[in-house]
Amino acid sequence: MFKLAPSILSADFYRLGEQIREVMEAGADELHIDVMDGVFVPCISFGMPVIKSIRKNCPMYFDVHLMITEPIRYLEEFAKLGADGLTVHCEACSELGKTVEKMKQLGVKAGVALKPATPISAIYEVAMQLDRVLVMTVEPGFGGQKLIPECVTKVKELEAYRKKTGASFDIQVDGGIVTDNVKAVHEAGAEVFVAGTAIFGGDIRQNVLSFKEEITRAD
Ligand code: DX5
Ligand code: ZN
Predict the structure, then answer these.
(1) pTM
(2) Per-residue confidence (pLDDT) for residue 216, from 0 to 100
């Protein structure tokens, strides 16, 4: 399994609909939607009204990455808006178990994300309930950063843990993913690749195709 999830954080918001259609038609698997609250991370990105508008016009899988403090407060709203998967940061939840339980109750795919400095042990208590673990390969908050190599080691650790426990979550990576490093990160154990700048900077269709080609070769 190998999935590409373009992050619209790097899109041109004046042409958002058009650019989403481009990634979809070029064969991207999921749409990665970064919600930032200006508290958990320094930036504020976008929120409910944007998701509502694109949901009406786009049938893709919506992978919503919540970089917000105490996301449990908003899970129901995001689910109602049509998120297919929600990913919360373990560092942002005072009660991770309850937060994951809530996502499961809402019938969305449940994901937990780890900042670069957070060890994989932070997800052990909920690992068997998770559909996805997101290993951040940069500090969350901004697109266009370089991948931190130590985070790839963390992907390997997580893959070993998954094997040992028989957990069924997929491993997603986000931050600094480019066609040149996707193979190595895949070999480390990741299957779902978020890419912002590498997709929306330049020829979108061509970028998606290049990723897909690289991915097929690595698979
Ligand atoms: C960063 C976001 C990412 C971001 C990735 O906090 O979670 O999804 O859009 O951007 P690139 O691919 O440019 O590093
Ligand atoms: Zn993201």
Answers:
(1) 0.98
(2) 81
